[in-house]
Design brief:
The structure is a homodimer of 196-residue chains. Chain A is mostly helical and 196 residues long. The first copy, chain A, is built from 11 helices and no strands. Chain A has helices at 2-7, 14-21, 25-32, 35-55, 60-67, 74-88, 92-95, 100-108, 113-139, 149-169, 173-187. In chain A, helix 4 crosses helix 6 (74-88), helix 4 packs parallel to helix 9 (113-139) and helix 6 crosses helix 9 (113-139). The longest helix of chain A is centred in the middle third of the chain and has 27 residues, at 113-139. Chain A is elongated and about 55 Å long. The interface between A and B is large, with 45 and 45 residues. Chain A binds a DNA duplex (30 and 30 nucleotides) through residues 13-15, 23-27, 29-30, 34-35.
Chain lengths: 196, 196
DNA sequence: TCTATTCTGAACTGATTGGTCCAGAACTAT
DNA sequence: ATAGTTCTGGACCAATCAGTTCAGAATAGA
């Protein structure tokens, strides 16, 4: 999965995959069918590992440490935690891979529309969760923005996709943090940021 | 260029390129060196065709027709015109290709860092122009946003990149228009939108 | 220890990759 | 018309691609 994440689908040759997985060619075909099916399983695994930190943020105790009680709304904390957890609190090497689902949507769009649609569908689940978070926040009057929850969710996903491109561009941690901070602010999520 | 734009670098095989360009194999190598150099020329061409409508928007007369005099600031009009011209007023088939530079950054990041950096550098010129527009607008008090011009420009580029991903995802014209409208509104650019 | 099942390494396939080469066609200038 | 330059089609190359096959190693159960 990490190799696909780093290089993309087409650029991963069978020998590279076999060496990384440390199994033999025949084992791969026996276990996964072929390269494409292995890739689909990787997309699924990636989605699970990306989605989990979004819909199950850390415990309230940990939140109060992390965010210093600045944002008491649970739904908005989910979103902020998602970005902090997957964008900032991540080793540089992995951050610079961007998002496997975004990468796949772009790479396979004209090549294998089924794979591209598969990845896009996973992303839509994330967007749907964004929307639910904003809807919840709006019902609690915890957000300062008059756009609808759908619009905020779409915008949040657009910013997320743009940030993943920025990651793969090799932008510095500081730049990403600045962009993220301004993004969340414009969405109406007042984020904490340590001042230097 | 269009073929690279649609399929990406790696997925364009020589025979496909030759058939599309309607030249022979030897002519391609005589004229462009090799596939990679041809691609670099395409990136450059794409940048020029993308950047021109940004820094040379239509004449004031045309603007007044197009935007109904809603936004009298020239710099902000440049940005709005850029998005309208490259995102909305474009045939579906081409819109769904996204942005060749963004696509290239993602595809080549771990594969050919030189190509990826080349595309990223082109994108940074666009971002720089965004920043200049926002700086101009701020100096004329034409923008309702207390973030700095640099921050606004970075955010604008992040939204742009996110929108290009959304294009390649196959989002509908209506969705894109909605996202763009909200994006510009949050950046402080009050865009006109025909109400249905 | 013996048998039965599973797994694996390496050789092999046919197709495709980017790139080279050159004889001859097409064109230009005199 | 002729000589000189440019262009082109197609054959060719070695390398690599994803995928198949199978004898033999490794493992398991009894």
């Amino acid at each position: 999965m990490i190799l696909f994440w780093q290089r993309g689908y087409q650029a991963c040759a069978l020998p590279d995959l076999l060496a990384t997985m440390n199994i033999s060619r025949s084992s791969l075909y026996a276990s996964f069918g072929d390269k494409r099916q292995l890739f689909i399983e990787c997309l699924d695994l990636f989605f699970q590992r990306t989605f989990n930190p979004l819909c199950t943020p850390p415990s309230p105790a940990k939140i109060s440490e992390e965010f210093a009680g600045n944002n008491i709304n649970h739904s908005l904390n989910s979103i902020e935690h998602f970005f902090r957890y997957t964008l900032l609190q991540v080793p540089k090497q992995r951050r610079e891979c961007g998002c496997l689902l975004v990468n796949t949507v772009l790479e396979m769009a004209d090549q294998d529309s089924e794979l591209s649609a598969f990845a896009a569908e996973k992303l839509s689940h994330v967007e749907q969760y964004f929307i639910e978070c904003f809807a919840q926040a709006k019902s609690e009057n915890a957000i300062n923005n008059d756009a609808s929850a759908e619009e905020l969710g779409q915008l949040c996903m657009t910013l997320n996709q743009g940030l993943r491109v920025a990651c793969r561009q090799g932008r510095s941690q500081e730049e990403l943090e600045s962009i993220l901070h301004n993004s969340l602010r414009m969405l109406g999520i007042q984020s904490t940021r340590e001042q230097p």
